[in-house]
Please model this.
Amino acid sequence: MEIKRNLSRFGSVKLVRNIVVAMAFWGCFGCVSMARIDGPYKGRVVDAETERPIAGAVVHGTWHKVALGGASTYYDSYEVLTNSNGEFKIPGKGLLLLSEIDELLITIFKAGYEEIGPGTWTGLRALSMRKTAIWNGKFVTLKLAKLSMEQRRQRGVSMPVLVPPEKERLLRLESNRENIEIGRSKSTLYDME
Model:
């Protein structure tokens, strides 16, 4: 009886050891997360000065797969316009087990305003220090400052990396709108056909 109990305890120890070894093996590569819930990503975009909602701001999220050695490839993206209350929601990928899918990269852009991103969703927490991002649980309110015409002319819109043109249509349209408003030549516009 004692031997049976020891063997069954040994079997449990062996199972736990195998799980720990497997986790260490996959974790060493740095390209696989054991388990996490991706999304949903919710927030609101407001004018930094008036705190009024900004309708029609483009919120673009991109996911990449991270391979061995840190190289990344495009996985998927999702873009949405903020509603009349300045609110947005990106659904996310849900429960990810042993996934190579990296954290969501977010870009927020509205013609005439400063741009946020592209950067990681958790990176938005750093904006809290500057009072640009206000968190309420998992919901974030992002404050965009209006730019002068001179500031707008000095900057370019940062487009997400490796994203197929059809998956960043809203961002390209808003970038075109910005370029038209500031008087840039037609050669700077994205072809929307």
Observations:
- The helical segments are 2-29, 149-154, 169-181.
